[in-house]
Amino acid sequence: MFKRVLIAEDHESTSISVRKTLEDFGITNAEYSYYCDDALLQIQKSLNDDQAFDLLITDLSFEEDHRKQKLAGGVALIEAVKQIQPNIKVLVFSAETNPATV
């Protein structure tokens, strides 16, 4: 069972739904990040604190806003996270419709 989960999703309503589903499965330690860059920082901090996340749930597409991001979306986030925590499990939760992307 997953003990620590990070949800990277730019739509709060979707994040709430994912959190509710996790709670239904008994997973209560889930954190949320609106931006990919912030999600990567949370992963790095969790490793530094010896409290690594077991699972990353991420969207693939993140809408641009006023804040500049180094990581453009979920694919870049997954690649960056796998470089620092290769064994983390990743679940893609996205409305992406391009099969090549998924």
Which overall shape is indicated by the principal axes computed on the Cα atoms?
Answer: globular
What are the low-pLDDT stretches, counting only 5+ consecutive residues below 50? Answer: none
Topology as a string of helices (H) and strands (E) = EHEHEHE
Share of helix among residues? 25-40%
Annotated CATH topology: Rossmann fold
What is the annotated CATH architecture? Answer: 3-Layer(aba) Sandwich
CATH class reads: Alpha Beta
Radius of gyration: 13 Å
Features:
102 residues, globular, alpha/beta, Rossmann fold, 3 helices, 4-stranded parallel β-sheet
Give a written overview of the molecule:
The protein has 102 residues and is of the alpha/beta class. The protein has one domain: Response regulator (Rossmann fold). The protein contains 3 helices and 4 strands. The chain has helices spanning 12-24, 36-48, 74-84; strands spanning 5-8, 30-33, 55-58, 89-92. The protein has a 4-stranded parallel sheet, with helices on both faces. The protein is globular. The chain starts with a strand and ends in a 10-residue tail after the last strand. The mean pLDDT is 88.
Helix/strand layout:
Elements: E1 5-8, H1 12-24, E2 30-33, H2 36-48, E3 55-58, H3 74-84, E4 89-92
Parallel strand pairs: 1-2, 1-3, 3-4
Helix pairs in contact: 2-3
Short description:
The chain is an alpha/beta fold. The chain is built from 3 helices and 4 strands; from the N terminus they run E-H-E-H-E-H-E.
